[in-house]
Amino acid sequence: MTPNSLRSFAAGLLVAAILTGSAYFFGPSEAKSTEKPADKTEKTAKDEKLTDQEMIDQLASKGYVINTEAEWSEHLAAAAKASEKDKEKTEEKSDKEAGEVVYRTILTVSMGMTSIDVGNALERANIIESGVQFYKDVEKRGLANELRPGTFEVESGMTTDEIISIIFKQ
Fold it and tell me: What is the number of helices (H) and of strands (E) in the chain?
C-alpha cells in the first residue's frame, strides 16, 4: 500500500466518523414511532389509565393469580405449616432409620502418591475424620514407603488399621 492510498483511506475513515458522530449528537434525542393507531378512537398506552379492577381482570385473563396482602399472608402461613409437618415426618423417618451412615468409595492409588495424598483423598470422601491423623498413623507404623498402587474399595465403617492393611504392603 502506498503512502498516498493509506492517507486517503485514513481521511475517509475520519470523514465517516465525523458524519456519524454529528448525526448522533445533533440528531433527535428521542425515537418517535411512525406507526399509527388502527382506530383513532383507541387510546394509546400512555393515555390509557386502568382502574385496579381492569388491571386485575386483564392479568386474570392471561392466567395470573392476584391476591390481596391478607390472602398472601394466609398462603405463606399454610405453606410454613406444611413445611413443618414434612420436616417432622422426615425427622421421624430418620429416627426410625437411626442407622449410621456408611460412606463407600473407590480409591485409586497411582505411582507417585504419598500417604498424605491418600489421607486427604479419604478425608474428602468422608471415610476418615482427619487426613493428617491418618498420615501420622502410617508414619508411626513405618509404612510410608510401602504404598501399593492400585484401586481399592474402602468404607467409613472400617477402622484405620483395616484401611492401612488394604492400601499398604505389610
Answer: 6, 2
C-alpha cell of residue 34:
411512525
What is d(CA 77, CA 85) in angstroms, rounded to the nearest whole number? 12
Contact status, residue 160 vs residue 145, Cβ threshold 8 Å: no
- pLDDT score at 13: 95
Residue pair 136/157 in contact (Cβ under 8 Å)? The answer is: no
| Residue 43, phi-psi category: left (phi > 0), alpha (psi -120 to 50), beta (remainder) | beta
Residue 24 lies in a domain: no
Structural domain contains residue 29? no
77-93 mean pLDDT: 81
Q: How confident is the model at residue 84 (pLDDT cuts 50, 70, 90)?
A: confident
Quick check: is 91 in a domain?
A: yes
